[in-house]
């Protein structure tokens, strides 16, 4: 993420905030989506204990790379310059995905990707860096192989992704290209006590930052094994989040602001969103594209259109989207998905500044300092 990108993001969010306030106060809908997400496939080569994709008997149809290009062009015609976060499944398993990243860069679309790290060989890392993504998020659920490989169901994955981060960093230096490498742990009963160690590990391997996301209940394991629910666990989780807040204040590379970290206990207690958060704004901002082109404004609400059959503008201002938008602002679910949780303009700017920083070798206590230039 460059300063120019951060400036554009700040301007877009300022405009979006004004439109959101007009909608909430007067019901006038001049909103436009500002956060875009693309699920390029459901296929995955790991067996995460809290995920259903690898258990599916059938997968949704996948848009081809030309269809993705058509969809992304439709969004650009609607909103102008924008950024999108790609994920899967495992996106690097999709043939032509790196070509799509490169095409986005050529078209002025800033595209990031979340990966399990299994495909980050030297060759793939070199091609990925050459495509100049906005960021690369690497899913990692522990500071060691014992924890991570158990939760991800693939022995050896921790060592593979650790090497992959090294390949990315080496290629960044070789090609003179910088972008954030962000570690994304999914927090659950098996690993929450290790969150501070995950931050320290991420800094040691040269990642830019860590962005924690608590688990949601879906699979059998999330009900029987992985959910945080005992009084002892809650006491430990509160202690750990306090430590993370202190690390955040000392300059460690943690994206989540302290107010969000403090909501992890209420999340696992399955409480409603605090009134101080105000109206949910996800339906006023988010545009999530499924593998088959279906579009959602929120995971918990119905599909509002299909990008293969409608333009982005038609979907956003269509009757279904307007209905969902009206329903989401009244939702009191406590969402800590990193893509759904409330983000103000200030939050976005602070996040951007955090991602502009990188670890400096030899910095005391593993702290980060501003990147030169």
Order of helices and strands: HEHEHEHEHHEEHEEHHHHEEEHHHEE
Distance from N terminus to C terminus (CA atoms, Å) equals 13 Å
- Total beta-strand segments: 13
- β-strand amount: 5-15%
| Helix/strand structural class | alpha/beta
Shape assignment: globular
The count of helical stretches stands at 14
Uncertain runs are 339-343, 359-373
Major sheet, described briefly?
Answer: 9 strands, mixed
User: Rg from C-alpha positions?
Assistant: 20 Å
User: What share of residues is helical?
Assistant: 40-55%
Q: What is the mean pLDDT?
A: 89
Strand order of the largest sheet: 7-5-4-3-2-1-9-10-11
Chain oligomer state: single chain
How would you explain this protein's 3D organization?
This protein has 373 residues and is of the alpha/beta class. Helices cover 41% and strands 12% of the residues. It contains 14 helices and 13 strands. The strands form three sheets. A nine-stranded mixed β-sheet has the order 7-5-4-3-2-1-9-10-11, covered by helices on one side. A two-stranded parallel ribbon has the order 6-8. A hairpin with a 4-residue loop joins strand 9 and strand 10 (294-296). Helix 4 (122-130) crosses helix 6 (157-175). The longest helix has 24 residues, at 3-26. The chain is globular, with a radius of gyration of 20 Å. The two termini are 13 Å apart.
Give a concise summary.
The protein is of the alpha/beta class.
Which characteristics define this entry?
single chain, 373 residues, alpha/beta, nine-stranded mixed β-sheet, 12% strand, disordered C terminus
